[in-house]
Amino acid sequence: IWQTVWLEFVPSTYMVSSRIIPDYKNGTATVTVRTWGCRKGTSLKLTASYNGTVCAEKEVLVSGEYTSAELKMSEVHLWEPGNPALYDLKYELKKDEETIDSVSGYFGLRGVEIRGKKICINGKSVFQRLVLDQGFYPDGIYTAPTDEDLKRDIELSMAAGFNGARLHQKVFEERFLYWADKLGYLVW
After folding, report:
1. How confident is the model over 10-50, as pLDDT tens digits?
2. Of 159, 160, 46, 157, which is closest to residue 176 (Cα–Cα)?
3. 118: part of which helix (H) or strand (E)?
4. 164-173 mean pLDDT
5. Strands 124-125 and 14-23, sheet pairing
6. Helix or strand or coil: residue 51?
7. Cys-Cys link to 163, which of 49, 81, 142, 145 (CB 3.0-4.6 A)?
8. How far apart are CA 160 and CA 162, in angstroms?
């Protein structure tokens, strides 16, 4: 095993995974949640906040294995390289007003598109200054010794003037991608 693994207990009704599709032009995020074991009358409540201020909230009935809802942000903050504006997202599965499962996450409002030979983020051309990162650690080969080491790699790269990395040689730890999101760092 060369990546982080974990084992967790879950209730008989729980959220398996989610997918968030941001739409920066309209200030919305479409959230699709995969659930397991939901009975009739189970609802999904989503609450998005920015710096502690609730920006969107929606509760919908669970409709099969996948349930989707669109959140319209009352405040629009865009994620950009070097400016990592992120929303906190709280997921709650509810049955008869009781929360039976809850998860916290985050997302950024941003859009990526190619216009001619330019890569644009949120409609603006971004010059990418990328380092080639092979994710090698002398003490652990392809496993970072600590979470702080993953964060420090990004901080050192940014201090050297890079705004992102082309990840190479392995599938990187999800914690590396977490720190890239939190620090405003592009990854390919």
Report:
1. 889 999 999 999 999 999 999 999 999 999 999 999 999 99
2. 157
3. strand 118-121
4. 89
5. unpaired
6. coil
7. 81
8. 6
**How far is it, in rounded angstroms, from Cα 92 to Cα 113?**
32
Q: pLDDT by residue (tens digit) across 76-113?
A: 999 999 999 999 999 999 999 899 999 999 999 999 99
CA 181 to CA 185: how far, in whole Å?
6
Q: How far is it, in rounded angstroms, from Cα 183 to Cα 76?
A: 19
Q: How much of the chain exceeds pLDDT 70, in percent? A: 98
Q: Is beta strand 79-80 parallel, antiparallel or unpaired with respect to 83-84?
A: antiparallel
* Euclidean distance between CA atoms 23 and 8, whole angstroms: 33
> How long a stretch of residues is the chain?
188
Query: 139, 164 in Cβ contact below 8 A?
Result: no
Total Cβ atoms within 10 A of residue 135: 19
Letter string b/e over residues 149-170, b meaning 16 or more CB atoms within 10 A of that residue's CB: ebbebbeebbeeebbbbebeee
- Dist CA 78 CA 87 (whole Å): 10
φ and ψ at residue 28, rounded to 5 degrees: -125, 165
Residues facing 87 on adjacent strands: 107
Q: What sections of 25-99 are H helices per DSSP?
A: none
